[in-house]
Amino acid sequence: MARQRFRGGQKPCMLKDVRSGCRARVRCHHGTRSIRQRLLDLGFLPQAEIDVIRRAPLGDPIQCRIGSCCVVLRGSEAAQIEVDEAETPRDAEHQP
């Protein structure tokens, strides 16, 4: 698998703003201690790579892949995860 380049030096975004089919890397969490702990328990560790698989028709919830697990997050939870978005969509690494 090709190594993804992440945008450095740009303003980070929240996971809720990452488009379906894109990859992102966790920077940090916001919110209450219990929310941060739940996100850590689910595998949203700093520097972890996340694939945004799909969104519900109205944008909430969001299905993500982190490691080998698929996780579905509420929009309010995804709004608490600050990420760096990859420069290219995750599918671009498989194209010739």
From TrEMBL:
Pfam families: FeoA. InterPro entries: Fe-transptr_FeoA-like, FeoA, FeoA_core_dom, Transcriptional_repressor_C. GO terms for molecular function: transition metal ion binding. The keyword Metal-binding does not apply. It comes from the Bacteria. Residues 13-85 form the Ferrous iron transporter FeoA-like domain. Signal peptide: none annotated. The keyword Ubl conjugation does not apply. Keywords: Iron. This is Ferrous iron transport protein A. It comes from Desulfofustis glycolicus DSM 9705.
